[in-house]
Specification:
The protein is mostly beta strands and 266 residues long. It is 3% helix and 38% strand. The strands form four sheets. Strands 1, 3, 4, 5, 6, 8 and 9 form a seven-stranded antiparallel beta sheet that branches.
């Protein structure tokens, strides 16, 4: 077992499937605990198909492994302070189809590897094994319950876990502009948002006004606490006096993250 003192990952607020065509059990009927000791879900995909990180995290393993051929393990920090590790098994080792580097940071959707062929994947024909192990990385990433360190209590059912945490912040209505005060030429912007995440927290918002590729204005950061499922109306003052050509984009930064992302329509 190899433990790491590397920095913890950026908080993972949202999860997505490693492929849009991921179907649990589409390979050999293998779902979570079917067969009874199977600790993940197997999805049928051709050789060289790219596999994507299900959330932001840090790569803890990218190596050859018995029964997996090659495997990548990514540790994710959740907003409630707990952790989970995603396991991507049966990956490719051919030139030109690299796995993510051990110790690297990944964002949701980054490619972590490619599906291996039947000669190298260690367990049947071409497919992806996706596992979700509870807690911080401890050196264990078993595909089957064959030791006291790897039992069903150590793992989540992947599809159920991802679907529950696939939410996002969304606009409840369109972004509107209006005079900041009666008779003023300066404009303020208003946007209503709804927290569709699995978690609540203190979020940061900013408004960027664009004219083509040019940023005309970026607002001050507005902090707003939102519980899961809650909505709020945001008021964002600006120094703009007209909106003849721009596009207003509301952006979000969740607690424990560094990157900004746009808030989309419902």
């Amino acid at each position: 077992m190899r433990l790491s003192l590397r920095p913890r990952p950026e908080t993972a607020w949202s999860f997505a499937f490693p492929r849009p065509d991921f179907v649990a059990g589409s390979y050999d009927g293998r779902t979570f605990l079917s067969p009874s000791n199977h600790l993940g879900e197997d999805s049928d995909h051709p050789h060289h198909t790219p596999v994507h990180a299900i959330a932001a995290g840090i790569v803890k393993e990218a190596c050859k492994a018995t029964g997996y051929g090659r495997v990548v393990v990514v540790e994710h920090r959740l907003p409630d302070g707990s952790d989970v590790c995603s396991i991507y098994g049966h990956l490719c080792g051919h030139a030109g189809f690299p796995m993510a580097r051990d110790g690297s940071r990944v964002a949701q959707g980054d490619i972590v590897g490619y599906i291996g062929d039947r000669m190298e994947n260690g367990d049947g024909l071409e497919h992806l094994h996706l596992g979700l192990r509870k807690g911080r990385y401890d050196g264990h990433f078993c595909g089957y319950a064959r030791s006291p360190h790897c039992t069903p209590k150590h793992y989540y059912p992947p599809t159920e876990f991802i679907r529950a945490r696939a939410g996002t912040m969304r606009l409840a209505s369109r972004i509107e502009s209006f005079p900041m005060t009666p008779g003023s030429r300066d404009l303020a912007f208003k946007a209503s948002v709804t927290n569709g995440f699995f978690y609540g927290g203190a979020f940061e918002f900013r408004l960027r006004v664009l004219a083509g590729d040019t940023v005309r204005f970026t607002s001050k950061i507005l902090k707003q606490k939102l519980d899961r499922g809650a909505s709020a109306s945001l008021l964002l003052p600006s120094t703009l006096t007209d909106t003849r050509t721009p596009q207003a984009v509301l952006e979000l930064r969740a607690p424990g993250t560094e990157s900004w992302s746009p808030v989309g329509d419902p």
